[in-house]
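== Sequence and structure of one protein ==
=== Format: two labelled lines per protein ===
==== Data for this protein ====
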Amino acid sequence: MLVGCADILERLFDQVLVPGAVRDELLRLNAPEIVKAWIRRPPPWLKVEQIPKVRPIHGLHPGESEALQLALQAKAAGVLMDDLDGRKAARRLGLSVAGTVGLLERAAEAGWIKLPEAVARLRQTNFFIAPEVLNQVLERDRSRRALVRPIAKDPGLPR
């Protein structure tokens, strides 16, 4: 939301399931108003699901625990998660994991966004990721873009 790329989720996934605990996190007092407004009126492809019997997972916050339970309950192929401990737990459960930066990178590869601009906006938020990870992602993006540059026309060739 804060990076202006929420539509990437719709392009990448038919549906995104969000557990109630994650929705509640997005509605907290300290959450930005744009995020609160978005989750109060979610887009049609986003569905908030309540977990009837929440089983806390040691070392994880309620949102991560519920997201993993929901992914398993829905037989999802994977889970969207940035929390490092949550990502490890997801892999232990056999789920593939994608995070914010990975989704941005996929969107850039598809030509939907300019990754340096999205990363610059991401750096202006409270999102935490090691700077070297962002630098690696930006370097991969520069390399990828260098490989797909159009060949300049030779003015001496007939058209």
